[in-house]
Amino acid sequence: QVHIVESGGGLVQPGGSLRLSCVASGINLDYYTVGWFRQAPGKEREGVSCISTRDSRTYNADSVKGRFTISGDTAKNTVYLQMSSLEPEDTAVYYCLVRLRTTPQAMCAINEIGPLDYRGQGTQVTVSS
């Protein structure tokens, strides 16, 4: 059985940092592309950072370039999202989506979760003073 579990969210002041973790079990992330997505109330889902863990290719949305860094640890079957210079506009539920064999850029652009995709429940990130 496949499980995707995110952690690391919380309340942080503007300008602060957080590191999110996405741990997978039941699948080997070497064969998948992993994306961090976020959704805020009343807003559309946004793919912010995506990675092909096998070759470490990454893609970042313009809204987070220079502030967010995605990375993978294949030994731990985990993908991280290091977020810095956080802004109130970054407030959202962040969740991890895993898809088989696609590019990071295509991953971040998906607009529909497919039947063979895996996702976690998400972790809340709130940026507020």
Layout of helices and strands, plus pairs?
Elements: E1 3-7, E2 10-12, E3 18-25, E4 32-39, E5 46-52, E6 57-60, E7 68-73, E8 78-83, E9 92-100, H1 104-108, E10 118-119, E11 123-127
Parallel strand pairs: 2-11
Antiparallel strand pairs: 1-3, 3-8, 4-5, 4-9, 5-6, 7-8, 9-10, 9-11
How does this model look, in words?
The structure is a single chain. This protein is mainly beta and 129 residues long. It has one helix at 104-108; strands at residues 3-7, 10-12, 18-25, 32-39, 46-52, 57-60, 68-73, 78-83, 92-100, 118-119, 123-127. The strands form two sheets. Strands 2, 4, 5, 6, 9, 10 and 11 form a seven-stranded mixed β-sheet that branches. Strand 7 (68-73) and strand 8 (78-83) form a beta hairpin. The radius of gyration is 13 Å and the shape is globular.
Low-confidence stretches: none
Total number of beta strands: 11
Helix content: under 10%
Alpha-beta content class: mainly beta
The first-to-last residue Cα distance is: 40 Å
Task: Write a short abstract of this structure.
The chain is mainly β. The protein is built from one helix and eleven strands; from the N terminus they run βββββββββαββ. Helices cover 4% and strands 49% of the residues.
